Amino acid sequence: MRAIHYLIDCQGKTLPSPFQALRQALANDLAEHALVAHAVDRLGYVHVQDWPRGLAIFYRRPVTNPVTLAGVIYLLAELPDKRVVFSVADRHIRCLLCRDRAQAIGRLAQEMRDLEAALWQPDRTVPDVDVPARSMPLLGKRNTT
């Protein structure tokens, strides 16, 4: 039996295979595997494969946003309860196995929190400014009489 493929875009929408809308948006006649690779690597989409014995979820952490992962949670809620294997590309490829849908959703929620925290961290390329601790002269109250 063949896998059923889904792509979740940056707005959390689920695109079922054969991904005609994405094909038209890119105005390119790529093969399906090349189209999926481009969407995951360059556009930050999440690729979900629904196999008879489980789900495989692929994404690149640096380009995926929390809204996309929320779309994956909604897709998981609609699909039957199965094992889930995550393949997450960061600097290295990490693989995680979840025994059921609840554990996978918990993992995605944690990943969403991590991504949101990374968005709020200050840029480390800007050096920290050391403000000298000088006492500022206190302004006295003006006498208005």
Can you describe what's shown?
The protein has 145 residues and is of the alpha+beta class. Strand 1 and strand 2 form a beta hairpin. The protein has four helices and six strands; from the N terminus they run E-E-H-H-E-E-H-E-E-H. The chain has one domain (4-120).
Distance between the termini: 92 Å
**Structural class computed from helices and strand pairing:** alpha+beta
Query: Helix tally?
Result: 4
Average pLDDT level:
83
Strand content: 15-25%
User: What is the domain total for the residues?
Assistant: 1
The shape is globular
Strands of the biggest beta sheet: in what spatial order? 2-1-3-4-5-6
**Can you give the helix content as a percent range?**
25-40%
Number of strands: 6
Helix-strand pattern, N to C?
EEHHEEHEEH
Radius of gyration: 23 Å
- Residue windows where pLDDT falls under 50 for at least 5 positions: 126-139
Strand count, sense and barrel status of the largest sheet are:
6 strands, mixed
Main traits of this protein?
145 residues; alpha+beta; six-stranded mixed β-sheet; 36% helix; globular
Entry summary:
By secondary structure, the protein is of the alpha+beta class. Helices cover 36% and strands 23% of the residues.
